[in-house]
Amino acid sequence: MGSYSTNHGDHKLVFRQLFEKESSTYTYLLADASHPQNPALLIDPVDKTADRDLALVKELGLKLIYAINTHVHADHVTGSGLIKTKFPGVKSIISKASNAKADLFVEPGDKIYFGDIFLEVRATPGHTLGCVTYVTGDESNQLQPRMAFTGDALLIRGCGRTDFQGGSSDKLYDSQIFTLPKDTLVYPAHDYKGFTVSTVGEEMLYNPRLSKDKETFENIMQNLHLSYPKMMDVAVPANMVCGLQETKSE
Ligand SMILES: N[C@@H](CCC(=O)N[C@@H](CSS)C(=O)NCC(=O)O)C(=O)O
Ligand SMILES: [Fe+2]
């Protein structure tokens, strides 16, 4: 289910799942096509594919208003800064807890509106301190099932590593992702196995890490033995400033 436009009562949600293959990153394009201006947002854009994403926005006749990140990525540079240089009206968004730069900062419980649809912010720390999950909603609750953009907190049959940038397996386990309704669709920031979508209920049953008890989970996370992302030294400082490397004025 990578791409659809669907009617939910009064709402017409445009949804596209886009992939950046070098970092196996998913970027998501959402828009409210029931609204006269077709307001749209991108979740977790990548610098390398920003032009592709902006061309799609244009082709679909959408008005991009937000470039949103789920967290300070360590494996790729966000497209937010580049997008802002090309579409100056676009506002970048990240969680306040990330301590990164952006135009707007969100906290748990905040709602990011695009037309009559919103993304509700939920704190899901543990992969990094400032990780959040964005969950679709609307005032009349017609937009069902909900879609959760989980960043690296919950991956399909996996989860984000917890060994850098304020990571904590204790916090990730307690981050309450599984309190969302079981039919909530799970859309992660990465997939390394070819999956595109899951549900909360499916992950509660089959996630080989988060379905376990806390002690087993923490033991699994301590023994992943993953090498650090290749781009980490470039990506983290760049993403702390929204992807734009600021030039120093003399
Ligand atoms: N090989 C990749 C990095 C892979 C990696 O560490 N992925 C992160 C998410 S990006 S911060 C992760 O949390 N992975 C969890 C897992 O179980 O794989 C590279 O070199 O970029
Ligand atoms: Fe990450």
UniProtKB/TrEMBL annotation:
Principal subcellular localisation of the protein: mitochondrion
Enzyme's top EC category: oxidoreductase
GO biological process: glutathione metabolic process; hydrogen sulfide metabolic process
Gene Ontology CC, one term: mitochondrion
Pfam families: Lactamase_B
Superkingdom classification of source: Eukaryota
Subcellular compartments: Mitochondrion
Family annotation (InterPro entries): Metallo-B-lactamas, Mito_Persulfide_Diox, POD-like_MBL-fold, RibonucZ/Hydroxyglut_hydro
N-terminal signal peptide: none
Keyword Oxidoreductase in record: yes
Cofactor: Fe(2+)
Domain Metallo-beta-lactamase: from-to ranges: 24-190
Family: Belongs to the metallo-beta-lactamase superfamily. Glyoxalase II family.
Database matches in PANTHER family: PERSULFIDE DIOXYGENASE ETHE1 (PTHR43084), PERSULFIDE DIOXYGENASE ETHE1, MITOCHONDRIAL (PTHR43084:SF1)
Protein name stated in the entry: persulfide dioxygenase
